Amino acid sequence: MPTARSRPTSRDVARAAGVSQATVSLVLRDKWRGRVSAATADSVRAAARQLGYRPNLAAQSLRTGLTRTALLVVPALTNEFFARLHTGAAGVAAEHDFGVVLYPSPQGIGRARDPFASARTALDGVIASSMAAEALGALSGNGLPLVMLDSDPARTDSAAKVNVDLADGMRQTVAHLIGLGHRHLGHLAAGVPSWTFEVRSEALHEALRPSPGVRLQRAESPSLSVQDGLQAAWRLLTAEPRPTALICDDDLLAAGACKAARRLGLRVPDDVSVSGFDDLGLATAVDPELTTVRLPAEEAGAAAMRALLAVLAGEAPATAVLPVELVRRGSTGPAPGWI
Amino acid sequence: MPTARSRPTSRDVARAAGVSQATVSLVLRDKWRGRVSAATADSVRAAARQLGYRPNLAAQSLRTGLTRTALLVVPALTNEFFARLHTGAAGVAAEHDFGVVLYPSPQGIGRARDPFASARTALDGVIASSMAAEALGALSGNGLPLVMLDSDPARTDSAAKVNVDLADGMRQTVAHLIGLGHRHLGHLAAGVPSWTFEVRSEALHEALRPSPGVRLQRAESPSLSVQDGLQAAWRLLTAEPRPTALICDDDLLAAGACKAARRLGLRVPDDVSVSGFDDLGLATAVDPELTTVRLPAEEAGAAAMRALLAVLAGEAPATAVLPVELVRRGSTGPAPGWI
DNA sequence: TTGTATGCGTTATCAA
DNA sequence: TTGATAACGCATACAA
Q1: Which member of B78, B96, B170, B184 has the lowest number of beta carbons within 10 Å of its beta carbon?
Q2: Which residues of A touch B111 (CB under 8 A)?
Q3: How many contiguous H segments (helices) and E segments (strands) does chain B have?
Q4: Helices B38-51 & B10-17, crossing angle to 10 degrees?
Q5: Nearest to A84 by CA among B78, B280, B85
Q6: Is the peptide bond between A288 and the residue preceding it cis, with omega within 30 degrees of 0?
Q7: CA B10 – C1' D11 distance (Å)?
Q8: What is the Cα A121 distance to its own chain's centre?
């Protein structure tokens, strides 16, 4: 009786079932229709289960050239939005026996590594957020199937695209605020060079076009952080005349805006309304809770993974746009003096 | 001139350098001391760089039985603490050409795969948070090197352990509050069955022992969420007599406590002080900012990865305890009536 | 100091 | 309907 058995191989299964190794492979990969008798197939499966057989992934991958692994390129997982993106992508991946590996953000200390040099696993494809700008260079021309998240739909490359309808989110926000009587808006914009923020600005101007009486001011936050948001909001709120509502590109910025308002002795939403984008956990952690455009992060991640699987299956790259929804909460209210 | 070259193999490098494939392997794996001349080594490296050679990981792994991949088992990446844990672990891993793959959270949508189904061939080791309780069963007895994060140091298994000094964090919190004149504390505890929360309770009682005059009440939040924290805090704050300070097991709970206070018409910190654990981004996003025990999440992840590498290198499993620090911010202040 | 040969576990092409 | 057998790309014992 053997004591320290090593992991059973397909040969062990073959031996146990009294068949050849090739038959085992056929049966277990479910490609035995009309090639192997149902009886032998059953006995192979029984033997495999009996022995607790698991295929060796390295061997499988070496032989097929496929890894069932996708790379997800995002700026930082500590931003909840990207963590949720990952959750969605990993969920769909798991359903298809795929794995998701993350490109470690280079914005931390240390030089940026080439994601393909050090990616631990060989990859079958890449899902990249447009916000991970610094990695996009390495991405181009490496021949891997690519799905872009939140990138300019006008880009005419061969990548599949998954977007969220940011323009509609901005429209909903503007309609909400104008309906509350606001006629002087501040745009707290993220000064991050990425399409996802450019489109917010464009959509805001577009949404304001039918309302020429509405005034718009703008301030940029150099990063997506509460602290920088606070400072940019401060500039907006100390300008004369002061906006009665601040539209922020992101919930973190909105949280910073609320802090700025309070430090200036302004009440939210009585003196100034604040809206955000994302609907992170943060949005309901602060007081008052944030009115914000809920972006379907998990769904976007899931859609991106599905798009990648489709491309891998030979389908033509497509572009999907996911709907968004304005969530009205306590941080927005009627404009001061509005009946 | 070849057009669609496939990825160069070590044989291509050998051919280009005019040596055998074995020599390439020796040189590139840096095991050529006294086996290959410096000149040939150089020419091999030059050829490899020239061709852009990258070793095929599947082949490497198949041959060596090693994967240079660690599994990180955490409850959810959408909790910033675990996202930071991952960041720290992935950073150290990358320095050692290791990868980190995440255990797909079973609480998400879609069925969770058994991460250990092919683990024996896909993984070299496991890093597991004690909070990922549901996965611990599968972990035991699978023979993989294991590093436990935030687990009972008294557990006498063969796992290496990395802990943060939660007991000291609790001591610092209690000292801070007692120094501010608080004599009636509320403990907003996480009702999550995990050592990391049990030790908070124990340490709190321990820290209070030298101060028999201090009264302690307790409420449990069924989950780590702002909403549940709010409800548990509500119970604490509507009890008679009412605690003047709430010690929360976590920043999310603390944020909920602040909301509860405000809804009850209580000011933070004038009427009630609130402290948390973790020092998430949330802590400085809310107003007032949270006094909280900063847990070195990245460092813990990094330490865990280092511990795993040490075990893999044959060292005996050790236990590390990382120091923590109370960060005093606006959510705590003198007890009402304290001079 | 360098080259040859072998096998890791799998899938896929054949021949039986 | 099944079974030999040949790669996949690499690392290493051994021969030269």
Answers
A1: B96
A2: 94-95
A3: 13, 12
A4: 120
A5: B78
A6: yes
A7: 11
A8: 21
